[in-house]
Design goal:
Length: about 160
């Protein structure tokens, strides 16, 4: 029972519980954009639909972050849990330039990989294997990257989420 919070500029800000969302709506700090009629909130005097997406009435300025720290979870999320070599489902990450050859832990050098491709590649370079990447890895951008709950978004959120690129 999660609720997506959009800033006044319609960019994703956070994911909160429906109780916190109701409090924001009832105090006039937010407006409901989408709700779930199947699971209403039943109070003493009211029956309300459960909010799934709310919009803040005032803009909240986010602290400026120059970089997003690289992590295994972040690399898998950026690549859509798809292997950068073959396109199958990925559950590991791989260094394009192996660490044994001076490769670093950076967004540009890490990609998601399936177990088979990761094992076959080992500590060799793409040129040695004759492999090519399906895309050029880059540093993720946008406020959505700070919201870890967006890895598994609810169906009702899709019209309100822009693609993270």
């Amino acid at each position: 029972m999660r609720t997506l919070v959009l800033n006044a500029g319609f960019e994703p800000l956070a994911v909160i519980t429906f109780r916190r969302a109701l409090l924001l709506v009832l105090t006039g700090k937010a407006t409901v954009l989408a709700n779930d009629d199947r699971h209403p909130v039943i109070g003493v005097n009211h029956v309300m639909p459960r909010p799934t997406v709310i919009l803040l009435n005032r803009y909240v300025r986010l602290p400026y972050r120059t970089s997003i720290n690289v992590s295994r979870r972040g690399v898998l999320r950026r690549d859509g849990h798809r292997c950068a070599y073959c396109g199958r489902s990925a559950n590991t990450i791989d260094h394009i330039v192996p660490r044994s050859r001076g490769g670093e832990d950076s967004w540009e050098n890490l990609v998601a990989a399936c177990q088979g491709c990761n094992s076959a590649k080992g500590d060799r370079t793409l040129a040695q294997l004759g492999w090519k990447l399906r895309f050029a890895p880059s540093r993720p951008r946008g406020a959505q990257w700070f919201i870890t709950e967006l890895e598994r978004p609810a169906e009702a959120w899709s019209p309100f989420l822009r693609s993270a690129a």
